[in-house]
Design goal:
elongated; 6 helices; single chain; transmembrane helix; 20% helix; 329 residues; 6-stranded antiparallel β-sheet
């Protein structure tokens, strides 16, 4: 029975593969990570990880047991539980579940998102397994924003309050001065639609604070976009349309028709005392006159644009004088 106990102790800090998942096959990523972890194990590491260091370890038999374990893994293809690989200090450097896999590569953790529609708790679980307090929340966006970071809040060591006068960093948001990057692989693929398309997120390994990230994912049919206020950005629904000075409804409806878009309307309500926007009220199209003024446009979902209007021309565009409240759900 001693040999069985020995094998059980050796397996505890090694990678585990979730049954029934693609990685559970002998050729899968999880199985390969497990084999790599077995090959990388140094004598005594497994015992140290258990908190009961052994002074007398026979090197030869341990190597033999490791080799037999590796052969058993390749033969069976699965070990119960999520994939988790630790280094000699008990710090996880690799983790995989059905939603994503994370691997330490040099000074970064590289997270590969396999299922962009998974519950966000799956991503949090994976990041926590490697010691990162990252709350990743994929949200539905227009095709041009898939794989992009919509917003990030950093707290704790390495974080700082952004300078409101500073220009956005073209390299993207940073943690401890190192860019937090997102990309799709293969480049230009569509996560959630192309079967081999992954979103890849890179995070500095030394980060010890907390970060909340909103990440754009492919919207399901009929699902509303989280990046509703990006309609006039490059590559989006109303790319090239200018509304800073306000334009008549008739002009903007012509733009919508050219782009095969259906327009819906919301009435801008302003505070009589301050003149600031106070709310938006959905408005039937038959109540909107052709001479009403459009001050902004939001993309709702595929094929639908929302025009924000007033019956009369205002002294100035309210969207350029402060932040607009979010649309009513």
């Amino acid at each position: 029975m001693r040999n069985v106990d020995e094998i059980n102790e050796l397996l505890r800090p090694l990678a585990r593969v979730e049954p029934g998942q693609p990685d559970s096959h002998a050729s899968g990523t999880g199985a390969r990570a497990l084999l790599a972890s077995i090959a990388a194990q140094e004598p005594g590491i497994a015992a140290e990880g258990l908190g009961r260091p052994r002074r007398h370890v026979v090197r030869g038999p341990r190597r033999l047991v490791l080799g037999l374990t590796a052969a058993a893994v390749l033969a069976t293809g699965i070990v119960v539980g999520p994939s988790l690989l630790e280094d000699g200090r008990g710090v996880a450097v690799s983790y995989a579940n059905s939603a994503m896999e994370i691997l330490r590569e040099g000074s970064q953790y590289v997270a590969r998102i396999k299922d962009p529609f998974a519950d966000h708790d799956k991503y949090t679980q994976a990041f926590h397994a490697v010691g990162l307090n990252v709350n990743l929340r994929p949200v539905p966006v227009s095709p041009g924003s898939v794989g992009k970071i919509l917003g990030m809040i950093i707290a704790g060591k390495g974080s700082s309050r952004p300078d409101p006068e500073a220009k956005p960093d073209p390299s993207g948001p940073r943690i401890n001065g190192v860019p937090l990057t997102m990309e799709t692989t293969p480049r230009g693929c569509r996560p959630g639609q192309d079967s081999h398309c992954l979103m890849v997120m890179r995070i500095p390994a030394g980060f010890t604070g907390n970060v909340d990230v909103r990440l754009g994912r492919q919207a399901k049919p009929g699902e509303e976009y989280a990046n509703f206020d990006s309609a006039m950005a490059p590559g989006e629904m109303f790319d090239g349309v200018r509304l800073r000075n306000g334009r008549p409804v008739d002009d903007i409806l012509a733009e919508a028709r050219k782009r095969n878009l259906t327009a819906v309307f919301s009435l801008i309500r302003t505070d009589k005392k301050t003149g600031n926007m106070s709310s938006f009220q959905p408005l039937p199209a038959d109540r909107v006159g052709p001479g009403w003024i459009v001050w902004n446009a939001w993309q709702v979902k595929a094929g639908v644009i929302r025009l924000l209007v007033t019956p009369e021309r205002l002294p100035e565009n309210p969207f350029y004088e402060g932040s607009a409240p979010p649309p009513a759900s």
